Amino acid sequence: MVKSQRKWNLAYSVFMFMFFLTLLQFSVKIALIFALGTAIGYTLQKSRFCFTAAFRDPMITGITEITRSVILLIGLSIIGFAIVYQISQNTHYSLTLFILPFGLATIVGGILFGIGMVLAGGCISGILMRIGEGFEMQMLALVGVLIGAFAGKNTRSFWQGTFGEWPGIFIPALLGWIPTLIIELLILAGLWKLAKWWQHKQLGE
């Protein structure tokens, strides 16, 4: 069984590499995107990283390791974005910001999406990952995702008109970058400590 699996793994690796080389003949950009997507997918699958688990596991099992990983990821993303943005302001490269409006529909949609993630057993990345592992329930969930995305796209104006929207807020424009970074990182540090305390309370570790 193990030898057979190794043969399949080797064959799959060779196929992926050959496919990457084929893409290089058409577009370097597409080939690099393919390689990056493969690397991210491999990392997600091996680490069992899932945004759904970050919210689900503390309530069901008391384990907050993935929760703390997500908090760390957000913190690194905040710092990385701030650095990239500041560099873009001092170079010829222009970074476009998309400050999107939000409203009651955002809150309702977030709640519905959260319920859907728990029922489906994963977020979008988790669903795709588990489809690759052969899980049938996630295949059905993907159909629901596609139907919902299509319906949402074609009824967006209705929901926006029904619930209304508030203008988006770019906090660094109000407080400045340094105060914003300090506040956000302090909040994340507090959430990380809270998650650590919760696991210790539930499991004693």
Evaluate the radius of gyration: 21 Å
Judged by helices, strands and strand pairing, the structural class is mainly alpha
Low-confidence stretches: none
Number of strands: 0
Whole-number average pLDDT?
A: 83
At a glance:
With 205 residues, the chain is mostly helical. It has helices at residues 2-26, 28-47, 51-60, 65-89, 104-120, 124-132, 136-154, 156-163, 171-175, 177-203.
Description:
The protein is mainly α and 205 residues long. Among the domains are: 1-47, no CATH class; 100-169, no CATH class. It contains ten helices and no strands. The protein has helices at 2-26, 28-47, 51-60, 65-89, 104-120, 124-132, 136-154, 156-163, 171-175, 177-203. Helix 3 runs antiparallel to helix 4. The relative contact order is 0.10. The mean pLDDT is 83. The chain crosses the membrane at residues 12-45, 66-87, 99-128, 171-192. Keywords: Membrane, Transmembrane, Transmembrane helix.
Features:
single chain; 205 residues; Sulf_transp_TsuA/YedE; transmembrane; membrane; transmembrane helix
Summarize the topology.
Elements: H1 2-26, H2 28-47, H3 51-60, H4 65-89, H5 104-120, H6 124-132, H7 136-154, H8 156-163, H9 171-175, H10 177-203
